[in-house]
Structures are given as structure tokens and as C-alpha cells.
């Protein structure tokens, strides 16, 4: 299911983005 993969990738990206945002503070 390609959609399931997209959701996983987007979720991982959000997690990384949030982690970087926390590090910037």
C-alpha cells in the first residue's frame, strides 16, 4: 500500500522536523 508508506515517511519527517525545532530553541 503506497499510501501507508507515504504516511510513515511523512510521520518520520514530522518527528525529525519537531526534534530539530526543539534543538533550535
Verbal overview:
The protein has 25 residues and is an all-alpha fold. 92% of the residues lie in helices and 0% in strands. The protein is built from one helix and no strands. The radius of gyration is 11 Å and the shape is rod-shaped. The chain starts with a helix and ends with a helix. The model has no long low-confidence stretch (mean pLDDT 82).
Protein traits:
single chain; 25 residues; mainly alpha
* Mean pLDDT across residues: 82
* Main pleated sheet: none
> In total, how many beta strands?
0
Shape, per Cα inertia axes? rod-shaped
What pattern of helices and strands is seen along the backbone?
H
Estimate the strand proportion.
under 5%
Secondary-structure-based class equals: mainly alpha
Radius of gyration: 11 Å
Low-pLDDT segments: none
How many individual helices?
1
Distance separating the two termini? 37 Å
What would you say about this model in short?
By secondary structure, the protein is an all-alpha fold. It contains 1 helix and no strands.
Task: Give the topology, please.
Layout lengths: L1 H23 L1
Amino acid at each position: 500500500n503506497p499510501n501507508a508508506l507515504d504516511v510513515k515517511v511523512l510521520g518520520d519527517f514530522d518527528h525529525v522536523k519537531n526534534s530539530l525545532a526543539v534543538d533550535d530553541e
